[in-house]
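Query form — protein histidine kinase

QUESTION: What is the three-dimensional structure of this chain?
INPUT:
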Amino acid sequence: MPYTFTSVRLIVGWVLCIGLFLGRASSPVQAAPPRHYTIGFSQCTTGDAWRQAMLAGMRKELSFYPNVTFRLKDARDNSNRQQQQIQEFLKEGIDLLIVSANEAEPVTPVVEEAFNRGIPVVILDRRIASKLYTAYVGGNNLEIGQAAGRYIGSLLAGRGNVLEIEGLAGASPAVDRHRGLANALAAYPGLHLVARVQGDWKRPSVITRLPAVLRAHPEVNVIFAHNDRMALGAYQVCKQLGLDRRIRVVGVDGLPGLHGGIQFVQDGVLTATLLYPPGGEEAIRTAMNILEHRPYAKENILGTMVIDSTNVLTMKMQTEQLSSQQQDIQRQQRLLQQQRDTYASQQTVLYVLAGALLVAAALGLLAWRALRANRRITRVLAGQNDEIRSQRNQIQTYAERAKVETEAKLRFFTNFSHELRTPLTLILGPVEEMLTSGTSFDAAHRHDLGLVRRNAQRLLRLVNQLMDFRKIDVGKMPVHATEGNLVAFVREILDSFEKSARQKGVTLCFLPAEPVISLPFDVNILDKVFFNLLANALKFTPEHGQVTVSIEALPTERTVRVSVEDTGRGISEQDQAHIFEWFYQGQHPGAQGSGMGLALALGLTRLHLGQLTFASRPGQGSTFVVTLPLNLPDALLAPGKASMPSLGPLVEEALVAAPMATDEDFEARFATGEGRDALVLIIEDNEEVNAFLAQKLRPHFQIRTATDGAAGLRLAAELIPDLIVSDVMMPEVSGLELVVQLKGDWRTSHIPIVLLTAQGAPEQQVEGVQAGADLYLTKPFNPTFLLESLRTLLGNRERQREHFRRELSVDTATVAPAQRVDQRFLATFSAIVEANLERADLSVEDVARSLGISRVQLYRKVKAVLGTSPTDFIQSVRLTKARQLLLDESLTIAEVAYQLGFNSPSYFSTSFKGRYQISPSEYRALHIAPVG
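ANSWER: The structure tokens for histidine kinase are given below.
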């Protein structure tokens, strides 16, 4: 049936309507377009990296909100200009205002005006002097200061001097950071804030003002700057003054990038920096929550953390990962924009071709597919944003955990090294005694004993290397350089390898360019460096090979070069990149060892301001080169002249300075066994070491033992021994606490105390001597050296008794007041006796009761200090006083006798004559008879 014109027009109309309907139905986004917002941002300055990072974070977050117009006004550190710019924002009609104030007071009124007009205000970073704002986003500057103070307290172990470089005066971050630092330092009585430098957040002001302050305060240990730019200036000043190795610098910001605080920490320019997030993303998120009426918090405090050598690599990796993910997001956003553009063009075509039902359906299908892709991309972006936020929150947790785990690992190494010294004592002590006692062994047994000693000494060296690793890691390995001849020093070390090289068939060559090359160096440090290099070269050099050591001075470069060259198998290319890493062992089947020698040598060389390099060709050998400066900073120099190293581990451990006896009679008495009457108290919690000490000392002394510090204190007070040998690390009461308590108690203050410990660091030895110990020996120790040291201390004690007896002169019975505990005891004892001279019934029990101790304790104390009994002492005081009274002619001899507590004049006369070989009457006649 043919169509009429009217029916055709009706069909076309319906097609057009359906096309328009499908076109509108396929674009639901335009049905409810998002509202457009205008955000104004008043920034105090964009002239530094931290503010630029803040702005970059804002723009990154704004990329998720295409319906927002963002306007920025830069005040360029001018508070008046910032006031005017905020007024301009109010006139322009913005929907929300973000303010980062240059100074709090000047901008507060205009911010309050914006708030009162109903415009939401977000305060970013620096607070204003008012609470009339909608939300605050920023770090807690008070907590920043407190975290810096706590970190510095931990870094300096609670003792040291701090210099503070403050930000712009009047700025709230500067005020809060100083207040937080002061509050934290108050918890460390040994920390002192000795100076403050006023900065302006910029590096030039620090470079100008800091040198004069450092010259006025050379005792500064740590500089805390309120941002990383000023911290960099402080480091440059310290380096210019030669203080960069002694003074540590701590900053604030922790920005990523080549010129950020994280890179400075990794490069060693800064010791640490405190993370202070710019907060740009958080500010925009808070602003959008406010504008879109979503829940938000008024106070949005950004977290902080300390970034130092323990977590800087983790932080850098995380920031690089975040940067990479942000680039992916930006690429996906560009793709999304392309999809949106495509969708818009398709939508236009759809409206134009809406008259054709088939074309409209095809375009609708394409639009639907584009919408699905759009939603899928949006979901992916949202998931990635959630992942980024989650990772950002986990960074701090991971960093703290890494720091704790690293510290636990280092503590484990240190404690484990200490624990190894105790069994080494029980191995090396008997072995040394058997080898040096003169006992005859057959060749096989002597060889086995020598093998045990060599391997025990090798284990001891490994333990010492672990200790050195810990000291270098925590900065506790000091350099004490003295002037010396490096050629003679290296030759001495090389000679110690002569026997091993001869047995292996290796030739040692020493080629110094000059016979004498003088320079300041630390014997202890370079001994370990060259010993490790030579041991390594000899280890990997085959039979009939050669090890060559050459020394050459380079005056033009102000350095000395020491080369150690071998003809071994060389180092593979795979191993060359890792040989200086701690605990790394090569891939070669014969590469057995601890993996510490070369890493320790590198660390010690750098500590000495030198360099350690190497060159190697597989199959042809290796050459290690140590380059040392001819001059060192004054801070690394020590008085004296360098001495040759002592390579015997036992002798080196045992030679601790001790006073040597010169009383030949006393030494002869102990040599013949007469000194066995001396009582020695051994206090050691390790049962085997306790038994070992008792076994070695029992042939020479009377021995009593205790297994902890508390029991040792109790036995010392009861027994009043002649000498005490104690461990340092013990449960309940440590050896140092035991020394302090015994030396502070006049009952036991006279007893010599020897401390035995695995803690062999110089500062630990100083701590033991300062506590009052008479001798400090490190494990493992030589039993013969210990025995001779005890004999020397007892000999010195005998001479001290003679000194006290001479102090009780024939002219007076009163000891002169003194600060020493033993002298104060004698003064108190003498005063009690003199106050009761007239009492005939005065007994030792009465005197002991007056002193608050037992009769036995008094007897042992007086016997130990004076070598006599309390009864003899009382009699001596009475007879000494009698000499004074006999010169008084108004008193008869009988009155003198009764006044001094003698029961009868005859007993007095007998005692007096027995003491002075003259009767009282003859004494009086001799001294008061007229001179003719």
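ADDITIONAL NOTE: The longest strand covers residues 190-198.
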